[in-house]
Amino acid sequence: MDKTTPSTPNDLEAFWIPFTPNRHFKAHPRILATAQGMYYEDQTGRRILDGIAGLWCVNAGHSPRPIAEAIARQAHELDFAPCFQFAHPKAFELASRVVSLAPKGLDYCFFVNSGSEAAETSLKIARAYFSSIGEGSRYRLIGRERAYHGVNFGGISVGGIGNNRKAFGPTVPGTDDHLPLPYNHARDAFTEGEYGFDDSYADALERMVALHGAETIAAVIVEPMTGSGGVFPTRRGYLQRLRQICDKYEILLIFDEVITAFGRLGHGFAAERYGVVPDMICFAKGITNGTVPLGGVVVSEKIYQAFEQKADHGIDIFHGHTYSGHPMAMAAGLAALDHYRDASLFERGREMEPVLAKAVHALERDPHVHDIRNVGMAAAIELRPEKGAPGKRGYEAMIRCFEEENLVVRLSGDTLVLSPALIASADEIGRMADAIHAVLLRLPE
Ligand SMILES: Cc1ncc(COP(=O)(O)O)c(C=O)c1O
Q1: Last residue of some domain: 294, 327, 342?
Q2: Are residue 389 and residue 427 in the same domain, yes or no?
Q3: Where does ligand 1 bind, in terms of residues with CB under 6 Å?
Q4: Which range of residues forms the domain containing residue 436?
Q5: pLDDT confidence of 31, banded at 50, 70, 90?
Q6: Which residues, 6+ apart, have CB-to-CB distance to 270 below 8 Å?
């Protein structure tokens, strides 16, 4: 191949597409060329309804003007400034804005570039915190089944999705314990919203303490709603109970809110929805409305102060990225938070939650449906897998949604996921459910 030829939309070979069957994709490409509001257009001008807010990130819909303009202005004003030993005004401004949305007591914000880096950073901070207070024996990091904390080694180790771990060799030492997913299909299937009380799921942490000793456990990390693992709402009282047990044994509690922050569950952070204050919160995605890569971790005063050095030249934490606090990301984050506030989007998320719930639960009796789950502006339609071919039925349904119904849905195994932008109208949500209904009726047995 002539490598000087500029790549055209027809030259699909070089791009190794993540989390995608490349050979099949390149034979049947799904290319999204432009986007506005709730819709993409492909290269032929076909309008495609976005059922998943980009990838759980475009919470205000695609391309709101104020965010695009803020990024353009920033590119002219300050393209880059290092945030190692130096900094720039907007990094301080955005950190203050993020902590003002976080629960009281979480007053410091560390910036990274993605959700994976946010999760990784929180795990490293947990271990380094105990090391700095003279309790270096606390190294264990406890995750949960079906959890997704990104793709770095720490994240896949505390993560609970087998396929994301299997090919990559040994996981990080001290991450072998996973809490059970607080879900029981026989009892919980087709519940609307959060599940009922059952302390036994959180109490599993007590068993891990009994087995290993609290003096070896640094932190527990959970998503307030299991997201990429297939949308599993939490149980009533579950996060409170985890908080109690962590307090009892002085274990740090980390919420991974990469999906649930910035309105997905109707609040700035899901911690507010559930009235539980963790020690750290990971965020990413919606912070810039998906426009510029940005993630971060907010941490408590207790954690931040533990890193302060006595010597003026002593570095607090040997961690960070070239692009931590990147000016373009800071400008996008400030503009996104202004836009969410000015458009009352978190409130709108709360208003639309019952509309999405009603639309998806109407699919209960459709062919192949095994469970339907919803919480906030997120919903899952779990299909029964084809015998001997897990994932095949879901994959076919996702492709048919795109090709036959002009709808983008997300796939997790055989589960179809909807997570519309918070601007979605009742009509658009109805169209998403209708499209899935039509596809389920057409799927082969
Ligand atoms: C809870 C959670 N943590 C971490 C991540 C990883 O984020 P990223 O893909 O930006 O690395 C995701 C991505 O979906 C996520 O849902």
Answers
A1: 342
A2: yes
A3: 114-116, 119, 148-150, 223, 227-228, 256, 258-259, 284
A4: 22-60+344-442
A5: very high
A6: 224, 225, 255, 257, 260, 261, 264, 376
